[in-house]
Known about the structure:
Blueprint: H1 9-85, H2 96-103, H3 106-109, H4 123-128
Amino acid sequence: MDTILFISGGEVIIVVLVVLLLFGAKSIPDVARMLGKGMNEFRRASDEIKQEFRNNTSDITDVVKETRAELNSEIEAVSDAVNEDVDVNDPYGLSEEENKDQEKSPEKDGEVPPIKKDGPISREDIIDS
Length: 129
């Protein structure tokens, strides 16, 4: 990084010489003070604009934070309700009789029910039975 503000050393010397020729050696400190004051005023103005922007958007950010908190509490309530109501041993929520019927199903006993021959047979009839 041999450059300052994308200006090489030789270009910096040329800029200094041009400033000396335009303003003279006696007025360079005054020009530097004016530039410093201008930069300071610009910085203050930009800080004021930022502060005004923050003040104007603080209401919106407060509403967003409140809404986010409400949504998070709702999500937690729903996830807690889901976690409490699900029984690991009975994931489908079947009654005891339905569980017994499920245990006696033909697929588990090795028996396959006969295919209905009332009409044309579709793939679903074979898979379902």
